[in-house]
Amino acid sequence: MPETLSYQIDLICPIGADVRHIGEAQAQSKLRNIVIEARGLRDDNGNPLADTVAKHQKGSVVPILLDLRNRLDGQVIAPERALNEIASMHRSVLQNKEDGDRADLTTIYGGLTSVPYTFLTGVLLDDEGSIITYDWDRAQEKWRKIEGPGDGAQFHVDGVEAIGGVPEVVFATAFSYPIQDDDLATTFDLPSVRLTLDGMSSDARWSQQKQNRLAQEFLEVVKNLAGKGVMRLHLVLAAPNSVVFTFGRRYDTRNLPEIVVYHYQRGAPVAYPWGVSMPIAGLNDAKVVRDAEPVARADE
């Protein structure tokens, strides 16, 4: 090879590499990760989810903190105020998505809040495309991504066959721990349907594939109940935060019955003292329900 040609090739190669590096850097600079962290159960600030995401995701991190605790004493704020905070979080997410190309955006969610708040967050974020979900690993004391294959575990369904001609049903869904009949009896005087996961455990949550499949099983039972004339479900859900979020995201806001999701108060005279009626089935806004209000009939 002539010496001049060899020199030209040696000169061009570094320039080409530099151009590629600059192009990759420019592309990465456009990437944004909207990180939604919900706090409502933990006593301290712990490790911010945004810090964990920054170690694993390319691009900048835009943290959106949903803090449902009182800034003075750390206690969880009143449910009505919490709903306002959740609505404000949703507006922040929408605003951030308007500020850039959606193709450059990734949405990440993780949190620890009461079941009704987490389910509502999932309902509101249903239309935000693919979402990467994290959950707090109590054993390792760190945020952990929901990923990996499922294990084939299924829900055992009980009580659907006995439902007929009733507008409201208690839907007790046990993913991580049992739901006691005595607790249900403190709050509800309604027929009940149960879903119980094979091998209940809070460690059964770490597969998004599994969560999606179980959410579909959950929805198939809901559709069955709707076909039997059920108009409102009173959902008692014992599950980790990420599972509750996934179930909320999968709940069809247009074609399924009204649903009230309840907060569990261990050891209280009324085990499920309040719930949140979700903004679905023609209901524009979420609202707090403090007792089992009768369902509105179609002819009223």
> Main beta sheet, described?
7 strands, mixed
The low-confidence parts are: 295-300
Secondary-structure-derived class: alpha/beta
Q: How many independent structural domains?
A: 2
As a percent range, the share of strand residues is 15-25%
By DSSP, the count of extended strands is 12
Distance between the termini: 91 Å
Shape designation: globular
Instruction: Give the overall average pLDDT.
Output: 87
Number of helices: 7
For the largest beta sheet, what order do the strands appear in spatially?
A: 6-8-7-9-10-11-12
Percent helix range? 25-40%
N-to-C SSE string, H for helix and E for strand: HEHEHEHEEEEHEHEHEEE
What is the radius of gyration computed over CA atoms, rounded to a whole number of angstroms?
Answer: 23 Å
Protein name: SAVED domain-containing protein
Domain SMODS-associated and fused to various effectors: 96-278
Organism: Roseobacter insulae
InterPro entries: Saf_2TM, SAVED
